[in-house]
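Hey, I'm writing a tutorial for new members on how sequence and structure tokens pair up, and I'd like a real worked example in the thread rather than a made-up one. If someone can provide the structure for the chain below, I'll link this post from the tutorial.
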Amino acid sequence: MHPDFPPDKFEAGTLNTPGYAGLSAGIRFILSVGLEKIIEYEQEMTKYLLEKLLEIDEIEVYAPGVNRVATISFNVKGATASDISHYLDTEWGIYTRPGLHCAPEAHKTIGTLPKGTVRFSLSYFNTKSEIDTAINALKSYLC
């Protein structure tokens, strides 16, 4: 229960106005583009990235099925997830997420516990050119 005496009754907290504005803008964007178009594009980019990753022998992709969300977990043989993620970040400006992704049981299931994986997360705003850059970055790590 909120206090009913001054000055406490006037200190309800600060509204998350930037959060409301961002949510509103995001909803307007989705409504203007169309959810189906966004999903279709993300699936196209995910399929493209998967195909490129699977061409590299030193990369192991986990759950490589096509019918999926736009995240891909992988490892590079002989390297840690953290090393790959750090290399992509510092040398190429590519941001990935290494580790267990708050899902140790999932990693136990796929056999990547305790080392985890590197995860690419794609969106409607990614391009094939960016994916090609990421693939070239991984290939350069392997050289």
